[in-house]
Design a protein that fits this description.
The chain is mainly alpha-helical and 601 residues long. Helix content is 69%, strand content 0%.
Length: 601
Amino acid sequence: MGSGLSAISCCQRRTEAEGPSCTEYQPLLADRERQAVATLVKLFENDTRISFYEGEPLRALTVLARSDVHHLQLSAATAFSEISEFDVRAVTREALAPILYLLQSMYADVQQGASSALGNLAGVSENKRLIVELGGLELLVRQMLSPSTDAQINSVGCITNLAADEENKLAIARSGALVPLVRLGRSRDMRVQRNATGALLNMTHRAELRQMLVAAGAVTVLGELLQAKDEETLYYAITALSNIAVDSDGRDALWKAQAGLVAELLHIMQTRKIKVQAQVALTLRNLASDARYQLAIVQHGGLDALLPLLQSSYTALVVSAAACLRNLSIHADNEDPIICAGLLPELMDLVPQADQPELQCHAIATIRNLAANNGSDKQAFLDAGLFDRFQMTLEVKGVQPQVLCELAAAFSVFALNDQLWRPIVELGICRLLVQLLRCGHMDTEYNTCLALGSLVGKGHPEAAEELMRFWPRGLRKALLQALTLPEYAASNVRPGALWVIMALLNSRPAVVRKTLRSDAPILTAIESIGGSRVSSSSTCTSASWGLLPSIFGASTKPEDPDESTLNADNETAVVDDGFAPEVQRMHSLARQIVALVQDSD
């Protein structure tokens, strides 16, 4: 433990042993200060394991901290700094108070020791908020403005730790810390630069703070830091840019301020370590939530850069590459380039990987997006083993709910395609889809209804015949269950079930009409929906109608920007008008079905 403790004991020894040679110091020490020094020396000699954050040791250090004598202040600051190196724990207000007092000292070396101690203690969650509550932020901002590199390192490091606490982030932004942090991101000292970039990263986890960072000029500095030689600084900068790219305003700012951003990121992804490569791919994924970036990434050779990542044995790289491709595949103009780049077989191989559900979801969604363009040739999908992989995945027990949901959504797209609907019928996949209707997960059941309804809605008689074969073998029971769900639990499944029945009626009116006429429970459930009053508490959403094809004229190209990074905010608007239009449409559809069934023709 060295310099801080030896400084105290050295001063005391000279006073006692050398007498007159130390008289110049004697008048500067008050009785309380001399007593504090003596107490600490005695404590060090008798017990080196003592706690300095409470009791007599803390009182003695507090006396030295509040002294007007430089070397006593320095002794206290150094002691706190060294103690906090090995004894890091939650402390009280009384323990933090002398450290914060030392941070206001007129002496730079004292400030440095105090900021070092504060940074160490700020690593403990309980201390983070207490430091801010006691006014530590303002003092640290002053330290950031110091010309001393050591002061900058310590103060920025402390703010980095404080910013890891969610409740502190807004206080830090309002303290005036953002502009100094951005400026120190350009420091020539690698340690200052790394700490400043880490602090900026920790401030990007909330939308309002990201906007404040953009206003403070962080986008330009973070773009410059892509040239950083230090791997950690580079990683922090890329991750911060990734978080800023979550918001459309952030992507606008990046597009305007960083013309060469995509090219620079792709260069980094091909030349740096795995950790950085994975983060670059995730950053490109977030950027690709915008159509302009979806095109720019492909135009700058992004697909060739992603292919090796997709083939990597390192899971994080594969997941990040697949996530990026998921968003790139949204743009219809990217379909051919992705297929020509040889990525489709790689994606197909990822679909059955049951031990990696996130990876499965990204791969399935990408394939779905690519297949959504009905005007292009889909032979490449069939050659790549589309239905072998998807059927194999559906037949595995214990598939994760989110994967089942993606599979069902994909089949709802395949069913609308002129080249892809027939294998669903001929390979017996309808049986598996009917089973999915009773999986117990509302979104999956709704997507499955879309798939079955779309399959029959294309007007191909063999599709309707195949589905009616399963009416007594699970389809009827699943539809009845969906139709009779309590209103609070019906979600989108009820309109989906109605859509399947309507599609069957349109395809094979005589057979289905006869079947429904003889099925009192099904018909009663439909009549109940058609005759019930619309209430503001209904859980049927407009989104459920927006995806129903044919009847309501929806697009078959799903919008699927995957922006799931740090604290991206999702909000749902609730309209309480008492007569929700989407529910009125569901009731209207139910009444149409009843009318068709009761039609004497």
